[in-house]
Amino acid sequence: MRNILIGSIFVFLLMNVESANAQFKWFGFGKKKQDTVSVVEKTPYEKKFSEAEIDSSFVDVLKKDSTSYYFQIPLHMMDRDLLVVNKLSKVPEKLNDAGLNQGIEFENLVVQFHLNPIQNKVYVMNYEPFISSPDKDNITKSVRRNYTKSILEYFKIEAYNNDSSAVVVKVNKIYDGSEKSFINVFGKIGIGTSPTKSYGYISKVKAFPKNILVKTVQTTKITGMESQARMTVEVTSNLVLLPKKPMTPRFADERVGFFSKKRWYFNDKQQEVEKRELISRWRLEPRDPEAYARGELVEPKKQIVYYIDPATPKQWQQPIIDGVKDWNVAFEKAGFKNAITCKIVTEDDKDFDIDDVRYSVITYAASDHSNAMGPSVVDPRSGEIIEADVIWWHNVLVAVQDWMRVQTGIIDSKSRDNVFSDEHMGDAVRFVSSHEIGHTLGLAHNMGASFSYDVDSLRSKSFTAHSATAPSIMDYARFNYVAQSSDHLEHITPKIGVYDKFAIGWGYHFTGVDDAHDEITWSRHCIEEAYKDLRCHYLPQQGMRDAVDPRAQIEDLGDNAVKASELGLVNLKKTVPLVESWTTKDGDNYVAAGRLMNGIIGQWHRYSYHVLANIGGVYQNNVVKGDGLLAYQYVPGNIQRDAVKYLEKNVLTFQPWLFHASIYKKVYPIKMSPVGYNEYEPTSSYYGALSYLLWDLLSDTRLHRMTLAKEEQGHNGYGPHQMLFDLYQHIFKKTIHGRSLNFEDRMIQKSLVDALIISSDRNASKVKGKKLQNDVVDSWLQVELPCFHTSCDHSSHSLDSNKKFKTGLRADDIVSCKRGTLLQIEKLMKIHRNQGDTATRNHYEDLILRINQSLRD
Question: Dihedrals φ, ψ of 132, to 5°?
Fold first, then answer.
């Protein structure tokens, strides 16, 4: 259209020149030598771009000579905030195996175009927009000097348009691999190489009113590879126009789990910079503000819409859609109805592109990866979620099936076969969909939710009918492993609960203010009212092995880890003899049986860590004045003592029901991998898990917390000396009574002694500690926890419980305690070194040598 318009103007000018000459002749003013028509000179802009194709946007895209691309940047767009959003669109097998698939967002950048007419360049400025200060305050001058923008890239100005209201720059280099300024794909995904320019090109450019989508193909050479030395990916880069006026942010509160962005506020009246966090959330505004103010449910001006990837198998599309729409009940707590929906792409969606930031898509990835995650694209100036994606790996169904068979197969016949019915799997798909959508709404994991339910309630048919397994679907409270067959439960799958409704209600309530500071009072009151209900409490995620607060653990259920785990073991012990009948028919191999046994071992190991966290555990609360809570409260001594007894009974005693099961005559536990599967000798799995548990049980930080708890709790406490004595009495019971030891007894004793030696010697722990972990890594890997990978936005974060409680060990007596136990064991060995059978006596001599070498070298 632009080319046709320029041509029409040119013809019009020619016609008017001819008409003027004719008129001059009629009145006798014209001269013969002036009869020649003068040619209108083309401007530099017309000379270069009169033949270019133009695609209009906030920055027009010009295409010339099929392969040359230019941005025509209006001067009024200079210094406007833009967001670069980069995603993977196509990947080779090697990246697929690593879990890097279509839809993965690998880099976001806030940029501005800045005109420098003197140098005839447009610079691209990059900055992190987390600083704010009033324009009139003196400190603002210092803010502008100390938080400057950096030059990310530059473009030579090719031309100004005819009215000088815009400049044209060539942009090929930032997309075709010549430069890494806008797209550093191989650096960001961890390969660390650069694109090969001659192998890169722009494959597609599409412009829309508020974003420009550019698809590029980039290739890199992997150094040192003899075959498949090149790796090619397709990247979609979106350039998004951010709102001139950012959405009013909402300040994060540690008592509610939202992903957040940092924000610092400077002003002249301060004595200290104000540091805040802005929660990530969609912009929801009421269509009818007056009705909303009256407390009526109203629809939002703009609904949150997700699209189903057309690559999604049809049988899972409706369960995924239902999982999205389930969140509407939570948005009603914020005053909105029909706030969120999910659609199937139709022929009417002609502009649909799965990588276009105008569409939030549940992307289905053909991959062996057993996972799902829910990242989102956030305006860092305000926390506004612009677009979100759920990455749904095909084999997430494998993880879901494993959880259901292991945790509930004994109480639910539908969860036993190698292949579930579409209806039954669909229920689980709906749960996974809701969990991941929760992340894309800004919610972090609430690992403390499940603790608000007492264990007995999880066995109640009426309770679980409306309360599921936890008051939050954002907990890792999978399926109800506590329930017994005699309970006859019908509802054993997680669902959106009380906490989720409270969190969405608080995060998305529309106050209508322009400054987040004006709603601080409302926010605090809202949270304080909700916190009167324990089900609304929030505790962030911790690592499994280093958990400090036993209430905030992954994969656990209920308020009593020992009781819940004991009930879980009852079900596992009933399941093991049925593994073969559940997984095989005549003519089948035993791979499915081996995988199920691996899952059962993993569940047993998981229970041990649920219990372990109570030993040296600390309840940590996010307190405010007046709430009556304690910031730190040590786990009572009787609970710690019960936890040790559980471990003695179910871990520190060999478990023949699990590791000498009859199924091992036909198959060992199997762990799957992208290149096949590995079978593990079961007793090796036991000792690997045992070694890790003892190493973590005897960690200096855990024992130090036990010391502090004992000092505070007095005779009711349970300190490290008592625990080590209890372990000694249990593990060396046969030795104390002069009995011979079997193979399992000897290995358990060796495991304890090795853990004490390594952890009591500071120097040895740096070397031998690593060796200990390497020795058992295979066993550990086969019982690792499957879980959703939900990092969401990698630049977002929420509070980590463990970083709140730090201990000092410089003047501690933990090493003395451990070495005292070693001396006690050595003395016992010397007393009984000539007792028992040959294997037992040799074992005692070996322990004496180990301890002697450690304590006296």
Answer: -140, 140
Q: Indicate the SS3 state at residue 686.
A: helix
Query: Amino acid letter at 661?
Result: A
CA distances, 440 to each of 256, 644, 791 (Å)? 16, 40, 10
Q: Residue 565: which region, alpha, beta or left (left: phi > 0; alpha: psi -120 to 50)?
A: alpha
Supply the pLDDT for residue 348: 78
Predicted pLDDT of residue 98 = 85
| Coil/strand/helix, residue 521 | helix
Q: Cα–Cα distance between 228 and 97 in angstroms, integer?
A: 15
* CB-CB contact of 405 with 596 (8 Å): yes
Instruction: Spell out the residues 6+ positions from residue 773 whose beta carbon is closer than 8 angstroms to its own.
Output: 692, 695, 780
Residues in the chain predicted with pLDDT less than 50, given as ranges, are 1-37, 763-802
633's enclosing H/E stretch is strand 632-634
**C-alpha–C-alpha distance, residues 541 and 472, integer Å:** 13
Give the C-alpha separation, 779 to 760, whole Å: 24
Question: Which two structure tokens, joined as six digits, stand for 23?
Answer: 């008129």
Q: Which residues contact 631 (CB under 8 A, 6 or more apart)?
A: 620, 621, 623
pLDDT digits (tens, 9 = 90+) for 453-473: 999 999 999 999 999 999 999
* Greatest distance between any 2 Cα atoms in the chain: 139
pLDDT of residue 674: 64
Residue pair 488/461 in contact by the 8 Å Cβ criterion: yes
Beta bridge partners of 376: 388
Could you give the C-alpha distances from 166 to 72, 124, 149, 161, 162, in angstroms and in order? Answer: 6, 16, 23, 6, 9
C-alpha span between 466 and 709 (Å, rounded): 38
**Between vectors from CA 74 to CA 68 and to CA 76, what angle results, nearest 5°?**
155
Q: Distance (Å, rounded) from C-alpha 130 to C-alpha 122?
A: 24
In angstroms, the CA 740 to CA 236 distance is 68
Rounded Cα–Cα distance for residues 723 and 809 (Å): 19
Give the CA distances from residue 413 to residues 408, 421, 569, 578, in Å, rounded to whole numbers and listed in that order: 9, 11, 18, 12
Looking at the DSSP bridge assignments, the partners of residue 437 are none
DSSP 15-39: HHHHHHHHHHHHTT---GGG-SPPP
Backbone angles phi, psi at 353, to 5 degrees: -140, 125
As beta bridge partners, residue 206 has 213
Q: Minimal CA–CA distance to 363: which of 88, 93, 106?
A: 88
pLDDT on residue 19: 41
Q: 748 is written with which tokens?
A: 């358990």
pLDDT tens digits, 131-169: 999 999 999 999 999 999 999 999 999 999 999 999 999
Give the DSSP H or E segment for 105.
strand 105-116
* Tokens, residue 298: 């109203």
pLDDT digits (tens, 9 = 90+) for 800-852: 444 556 665 555 689 999 999 999 999 999 999 999 999 999 999 999 999 99
Q: What is the mean pLDDT of the chain?
A: 89
H helices of 111-168, where? 139-146
Q: 758-797 as b/e, with b when 16 or more CB fall inside 10 Å? A: bbbbeeebeebeeebeeebeebeebbeebbbebebbeebb
In sequence order, what E strands does 225-369 have? 230-241, 260-265, 274-279, 304-308, 340-344, 360-365
Please give the sequence-ordered ranges of beta strands (E in DSSP) within 250-399, or none if there are none.
260-265, 274-279, 304-308, 340-344, 360-365, 372-373, 376-379, 384-393
Measured in whole angstroms, how far is the alpha carbon of residue 740 from the centre of its chain?
51
**What is the C-alpha to C-alpha distance for residues 812 and 104, in angstroms, rounded to an integer?**
46
- Per residue in 406-452, pLDDT (tens digit) is 999 999 999 999 999 999 999 999 999 999 999 999 999 999 999 99
Residue pair 261/277 in contact (Cβ under 8 Å)? The answer is: yes
Measured between alpha carbons, how far is 62 from 477 in angstroms, rounded to an integer? 53
- Helix (H, G, I), strand (E, B), or coil: what is residue 204? strand
Q: Of the candidates 408, 401, 576, 604, which has an alpha carbon nearest to the alpha carbon of residue 489?
A: 408
What is the Rg, in whole angstroms, of the alpha carbon atoms belonging to the chain? 33
